[in-house]
From TrEMBL:
Keywords associated with the record: Acyltransferase, Lipid biosynthesis, Lipid metabolism, Membrane, Phospholipid biosynthesis, Phospholipid metabolism, Signal, Transferase, Transmembrane, Transmembrane helix
Membrane-crossing residue ranges in chain numbering: 89-116, 289-311
Domain of life: Eukaryota
Native species: Gossypium stocksii
Any one GO MF annotation of this record: glycerol-3-phosphate 2-O-acyltransferase activity
Signal peptide from the UniProt entry: 1-20
The family this protein is said to belong to: Belongs to the GPAT/DAPAT family.
Main subcellular location of this protein, as a coarse class: membrane
Protein name, per record: Phospholipid/glycerol acyltransferase domain-containing protein
GO CC terms in record: membrane
Subcellular location: Membrane
Length: 541
């Protein structure tokens, strides 16, 4: 008897909430939309009257020294972020943590999300995005994927007020696990109070915890008690007005300011913390329209990637460049071809920046000559489809040095001394091993650009890296040969291997307009994947 009762209650809830209640709201929306068509005003008089209750955030006195000892409260949605909807961030969770089928299901839900109220929208998106996923996968997305998109959508106007206060607390109805990693790592927030999700074991059920969806003004009262926070930032919605009215000072961030005002765009040099590492496959903010375009492109992209791989494997260099460019691959070459020294018995050592696994392939294509590439980790699939010779290194300095010396005696060699890829305009610390092996060193500045998918990953399937890169509509590679390193800047000229490595790193950074760092492969993988990035092969006795 228990099961039929549960089914009846569930059916009653669905019929009332999702059908009757939502249809009523949809009818009201249609009626209001028709009213706005007849009255071409950007905001209704009630909205304008509500917005005038509190001054704009641009009127906040951020030069006041008292701010440095004050407490600020706000929401991330519609205040710290310029985006009007949180759908793209749920899509990132669904795609990166749940896979393409879950992302497609979330996209399909857009057909009825617009008729639901705010709470039901959140409940539906949370259920589709989180149901059945492991905690560690969601935490990884919150730590390694979402921060890039949050930083790109920060509201500069709101951040200037935020940065002047000493204590910050964020109250949000968005699941806490989606924003806490970013807010604590990049925004120096003191605490995050958000919606908590129900879990069973180490997996999310997609349902809210017993506390339900967070109500901001109630949560603020429970958090501070009788004490009032000093500054409150809110959006122009009436719900936020109730929230910030509990503060000593209250300011509003208007939608129009964040959407159209160029002064609200956050430039990269003003990021609260440099964005050096991030993970995930999607290179664009997946709004509903952009996500539809991605799914429409996907079948063509897969076929195009296979075609481009076959072109690179089967055709001579000139024909590969021709057909590759016809398929949309852009390869730009700058610099002069290095001349080999007839007196040298060794080949030329090309030292490249590392953007994707395809760096040596595009260098070989640009030079129209076969090269050998050494790498620390390469999947079997990548080895099979690689049109050039690849050799794995062991991370044993002595053994790797002997291997590279042997390869140099056989011909030209390509090394990427960063040891791992970096997507942003930064160069990681260079290993100095290469400087001890050759005096004929040619630095090569390489850079790659994509518009839809990233061709690198720290926690995903690495054998898909070149396929994802070649699935982009118009992937591009820039290859710039800087010329041989002068003899006085090599080990033969009296320089140490560390000095040579740092010199070449600086030359490559200057050529690309990048910034040098001391971060290593280990730092990257500890941040993005929670491991040291070392693949240990299982040895069978």
């Amino acid at each position: 008897m228990v099961f039929p009762v549960v089914v009846l209650k569930l059916a009653d809830w669905v019929l009332y909430q999702l059908l009757a209640n939502s249809c009523y709201r949809a009818a009201r929306k249609v009626r209001n939309y028709g009213f706005f068509l007849r009255n071409q005003t950007p905001r209704s008089s009630s909205q304008q009257q509500a917005a005038s209750l509190f001054p704009s955030a641009s009127h906040c006195d951020i030069g006041n020294n008292i701010r440095s000892s004050q407490t600020l409260v706000c929401d991330i949605h519609g205040v710290l972020l310029r985006a009007e909807t949180f759908f793209p961030y749920f899509m990132l969770v669904a795609f990166e943590a749940g896979g393409i089928l879950r992302a497609f299901l979330l996209l399909l839900s857009c057909s009825f999300l617009w008729v639901l109220d705010y709470e039901l929208k959140l409940r539906v998106m949370i259920f589709i995005s989180f149901c059945g996923l492991r905690k560690k996968d969601i935490e990884s997305v919150g730590r390694a994927v979402l921060p890039k998109f949050y930083l790109e959508n920060l509201n500069l106007q709101a951040y200037e007020v935020w940065s002047k206060t000493s204590s910050k607390v964020v109250f949000t109805s968005i699941p806490r696990v989606m924003v806490e990693g970013f807010l604590k790592e990049y925004m120096a927030v003191d605490d995050v109070v958000g919606t908590e999700l129900h879990t069973v074991g180490n997996r999310f059920t997609g349902l809210l915890s017993s506390s339900g969806l967070l109500v901001k003004h109630k949560a603020l009262k429970a958090y501070f008690g009788d004490k009032k926070p000093d500054v409150g930032l809110g959006s122009s919605s009436l719900h936020d007005h109730h929230f910030i009215s509990l503060c000593k000072e209250a300011y509003v961030v208007h939608k129009e300011d964040g959407r159209n005002n160029q002064s609200c765009l956050m430039p990269r040099d003003k990021y609260p913390k440099p964005l050096i590492f991030h993970d995930g496959r999607l290179a664009f903010l997946p709004t509903p329209f952009a996500t539809i375009c991605m799914f429409l492109w996907l079948p063509f992209g897969i076929v195009l990637a296979i075609f481009r791989i076959l072109v690179g494997i089967c055709l001579p260099y000139r024909l590969a460049i021709f057909w590759g460019s016809l398929s949309g691959v852009q390869l730009t070459f700058q610099g002069c071809f290095p001349s080999s020294n007839s007196e040298q018995k060794k080949g030329v050592l090309y030292v490249c920046t590392h953007r994707t696994l395809l760096d040596p392939v595009f260098l070989s294509t640009a030079l129209c000559k076969p090269l050998t590439a050494v790498t620390y980790s390469l999947s079997k699939m990548s080895e099979i489809i690689a049109p050039i010779k690849t050799v794995r290194l062991t991370r044993d300095r002595k053994q790797d040095g002997e291997t590279m010396q042997k390869l140099l005696s056989e011909g030209d060699l390509v090394v990427c001394p960063e040891g791992t890829t970096c997507r942003e305009p930064y160069l990681l610390r260079f290993s100095s091993l290469f400087a001890e092996l050759a005096d004929e060193i040619v630095p090569v500045a390489m850079n790659a650009h994509v518009s839809m998918f990233y061709g690198t990953t720290a926690s995903g399937l690495k054998w898909l890296d070149p396929i994802f890169f070649l699935m982009n509509p118009r992937p591009s590679y820039h290859v710039q040969i800087l010329g041989k390193v002068p003899p006085e800047f090599t080990c033969a000229g009296g320089r140490s291997s560390f000095e040579v490595a740092n010199y070449i790193q600086r030359k490559l950074a200057d050529a690309l307009g990048f910034e040098c760092t001391t971060f290593t492969r280990r730092d990257k993988y500890l941040m993005l994947a929670g491991n040291e990035g070392i693949v240990r092969e299982n040895k069978r006795n």
